[in-house]
């Protein structure tokens, strides 16, 4: 980020998002008053609170920005990081609104952040800090199942979500829907299978759909499918790790480089993603990883020759200072805001295709939506139909074999008679959501001659939906 700031000193993350939105507003020809109502955050709460740790009082600052409430609850992750600021959470909250609208998830947009380096604290200390932060957010009215529901983001995961849910439950034991106050919880604490890897899984589904469109693939200077594609991933955290593993293990792609905070590991034959991750967790860095070449020049590795570049760490990583040197044909924004507005324009001029964050990383909030619904309905998906569907499949198989005399191969019979587990339904819902969103964006790109890139197409779709919801009920 340091280089980005040096090159584009006056453009903040929030301003970058707003410029991208302006481009879409212009393409739609949207009324400027409606655009002005949509763009800013509805509210931003800043909290400052003390926690006593090891006999010493420490003071923490956090934010919850709510961008839109045209749909409720407003939804979005909580980030624990040493660089969080108000501008950042506002930008991320806005992205949540556009993301949810792009993939048709009926939520408004929000995001929160706590200024902290989680690596400096023990588990117990983090629990105290998270619980106290939760209390502050609840007191300020920005955390409840009906109005504002957090989820994991950078620096947080299932563990923090479990603490948040438990704190909320202690505050409101009479709220029968307390579990729905936060998503991304452990499965045993009201979470849903598939949420941990959902964002990475969603990126995989978007990429698979992209490669089902040969003309789109050609526009990125690529051909064929994901098999053998050379991929560079920045950030092997929750999103990057699952994504890299799925692409390597299930789609036959080659992850040739992984960039982390302390540098990059490279292997042209494909890195063993699982081993890299284990090493990273154990050593808190990639230096010394024995099975690949290590270099400290992580930022430069973004410019490596590859087919697909996947920034999955921080915002502002591809900026006007390096956009001219990016050699990938396809940039896939698994992180939020990894490409600045200026870089976006440079890459577009150079013919580099960008699949934007608001589409690409929407898998997380999509499965959060499934979790939230499951918590509200107090029943797991498929419970009522599973055996019924299996019985019907078995009857069908019997009918075909015994009465129509058709011999069914074992795999066909297994497919027909297998009762789906909840995770199968989650994956099916996620796949459908990501495919349909890609197809809708592709349609705009092909049919609307004022739109020339995926990001603007995604924003056009999102802004039209949000604007419609404002206009239907009137601005109030
Ligand atoms: N989690 C989710 O469900 C979703 C996340 N996102 C977005 O995806 C991105 C990543 O989130 P997530 O995977 O959850 O976060 P994590 O904290 O799990 O992982 C982020 C990874 O990036 C690494 N990293 C930090 N700084 C740098 C750097 N300068 N260069 C290279 N690597 C770096 C981190 O290392 P270290 O641990 O040392 O800090 C960590 O390994 C964020 O933009 C987030 O907003 C989007 C949608 C949903
Ligand atoms: O799962 C969610 O509700 C939100 C995930 C998130 O923060 C994001 O998509 O950026």
Automatic annotation (TrEMBL):
<dbReference type="GO" id="GO:0006538">
    <property type="term" value="P:L-glutamate catabolic process"/>
</dbReference>
<dbReference type="Pfam" id="PF00208">
    <property type="entry name" value="ELFV_dehydrog"/>
</dbReference>
<comment type="function">
    <text>Catalyzes the reversible oxidative deamination of glutamate to alpha-ketoglutarate and ammonia.</text>
</comment>
<feature type="binding site">
    <location>
        <position position="199"/>
    </location>
    <ligand>
        <name>NAD(+)</name>
    </ligand>
</feature>
<dbReference type="InterPro" id="IPR036291">
    <property type="entry name" value="NAD(P)-bd_dom_sf"/>
</dbReference>
<feature type="binding site">
    <location>
        <position position="99"/>
    </location>
    <ligand>
        <name>substrate</name>
    </ligand>
</feature>
<dbReference type="InterPro" id="IPR006095">
    <property type="entry name" value="Glu/Leu/Phe/Val/Trp_DH"/>
</dbReference>
<feature type="binding site">
    <location>
        <position position="368"/>
    </location>
    <ligand>
        <name>substrate</name>
    </ligand>
</feature>
<dbReference type="InterPro" id="IPR014362">
    <property type="entry name" value="Glu_DH"/>
</dbReference>
<dbReference type="InterPro" id="IPR006097">
    <property type="entry name" value="Glu/Leu/Phe/Val/Trp_DH_dimer"/>
</dbReference>
<dbReference type="InterPro" id="IPR006096">
    <property type="entry name" value="Glu/Leu/Phe/Val/Trp_DH_C"/>
</dbReference>
<protein>
    <recommendedName>
        <fullName>Glutamate dehydrogenase</fullName>
    </recommendedName>
</protein>
<dbReference type="InterPro" id="IPR033922">
    <property type="entry name" value="NAD_bind_Glu_DH"/>
</dbReference>
<dbReference type="GO" id="GO:0004352">
    <property type="term" value="F:glutamate dehydrogenase (NAD+) activity"/>
</dbReference>
<feature type="binding site">
    <location>
        <position position="238"/>
    </location>
    <ligand>
        <name>NAD(+)</name>
    </ligand>
</feature>
<dbReference type="GO" id="GO:0004354">
    <property type="term" value="F:glutamate dehydrogenase (NADP+) activity"/>
</dbReference>
<dbReference type="Pfam" id="PF02812">
    <property type="entry name" value="ELFV_dehydrog_N"/>
</dbReference>
<keyword id="KW-0520">NAD</keyword>
<comment type="similarity">
    <text>Belongs to the Glu/Leu/Phe/Val dehydrogenases family.</text>
</comment>
<dbReference type="InterPro" id="IPR046346">
    <property type="entry name" value="Aminoacid_DH-like_N_sf"/>
</dbReference>
<keyword id="KW-0547">Nucleotide-binding</keyword>
<dbReference type="InterPro" id="IPR033524">
    <property type="entry name" value="Glu/Leu/Phe/Val_DH_AS"/>
</dbReference>
<feature type="active site" description="Proton donor">
    <location>
        <position position="111"/>
    </location>
</feature>
<dbReference type="GO" id="GO:0000166">
    <property type="term" value="F:nucleotide binding"/>
</dbReference>
<feature type="domain" description="Glutamate/phenylalanine/leucine/valine/L-tryptophan dehydrogenase C-terminal">
    <location>
        <begin position="192"/>
        <end position="474"/>
    </location>
</feature>
<feature type="site" description="Important for catalysis">
    <location>
        <position position="153"/>
    </location>
</feature>
<keyword id="KW-0560">Oxidoreductase</keyword>
<feature type="binding site">
    <location>
        <position position="75"/>
    </location>
    <ligand>
        <name>substrate</name>
    </ligand>
</feature>
């Amino acid at each position: 980020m340091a280089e980005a700031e040096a090159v584009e000193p006056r453009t903040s993350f929030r301003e970058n998002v707003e410029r991208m939105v302006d481009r879409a507003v212009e393409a739609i020809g949207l009324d400027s008053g409606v655009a002005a109502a949509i763009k800013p955050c509805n509210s931003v709460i800043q909290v400052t609170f003390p926690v006593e740790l090891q006999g010493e009082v420490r003071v923490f600052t956090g934010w919850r920005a709510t961008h839109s409430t045209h749909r409720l609850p407003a939804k979005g992750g909580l980030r624990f990081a040493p660089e969080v600021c108000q501008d950042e959470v506002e930008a991320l909250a806005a992205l949540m609104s556009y993301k949810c609208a792009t993939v048709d998830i009926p939520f408004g947009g929000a995001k929160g952040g706590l200024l902290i380096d989680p690596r400096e604290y023990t588990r117990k200390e983090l629990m105290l800090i998270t619980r106290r932060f939760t209390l502050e957010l609840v007191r300020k009215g920005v955390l409840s199942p009906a109005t504002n529901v957090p989820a994991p983001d950078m620096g947080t995961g299932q563990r923090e979500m479990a603490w948040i849910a438990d704190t909320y439950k202690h505050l409101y034991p009479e709220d029968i829907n307390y579990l729905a106050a936060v998503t991304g919880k452990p499965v045993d604490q009201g979470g849903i299978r598939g949420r941990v890897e959902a964002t990475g899984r969603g990126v995989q589904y978007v990429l698979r759909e992209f490669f089902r469109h040969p003309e789109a693939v050609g526009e990125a200077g690529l051909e064929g499918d994901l098999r053998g594609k050379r991929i560079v991933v920045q950030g092997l955290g929750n999103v990057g790790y699952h994504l890299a593993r799925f692409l390597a293990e299930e789609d036959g792609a080659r992850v040739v480089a992984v960039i982390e905070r302390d540098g990059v590991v490279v292997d042209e034959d494909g890195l063993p993603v699982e081993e890299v991750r284990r090493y990273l967790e154990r050593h808190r860095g990639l230096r010394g990883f024995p099975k690949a070449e290590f270099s400290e020049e992580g930022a430069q590795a973004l410019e490596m020759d590859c087919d697909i570049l996947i920034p999955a760490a921080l915002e502002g990583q591809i900026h006007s200072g390096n956009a001219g040197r990016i050699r990938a044909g396809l940039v896939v924004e698994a992180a939020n805001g990894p490409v600045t507005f200026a870089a976006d324009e440079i890459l577009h001029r150079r013919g580099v295709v960008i699949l934007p964050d608001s589409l690409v990383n929407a898998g997380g909030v999509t499965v959060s939506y499934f979790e939230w619904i499951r918590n509200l309905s107090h029943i797991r998906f498929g419970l009522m139909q599973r055996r019924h569907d299996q019985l019907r499949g078995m009857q069908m198989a019997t009918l075909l074999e015994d009465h129509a005399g058709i011999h069914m191969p074992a795999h066909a019979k297994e497919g027909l008679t297998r009762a789906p587990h909840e995770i199968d339904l989650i994956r099916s819902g996620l796949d459908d959501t990501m495919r349909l969103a890609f197809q809708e964006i592709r349609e705009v790109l092909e049919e609307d001659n004022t739109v020339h890139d995926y990001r603007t197409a995604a924003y056009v779709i999102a802004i039209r939906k949000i604007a419609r919801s404002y206009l239907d009920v009137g601005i109030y």
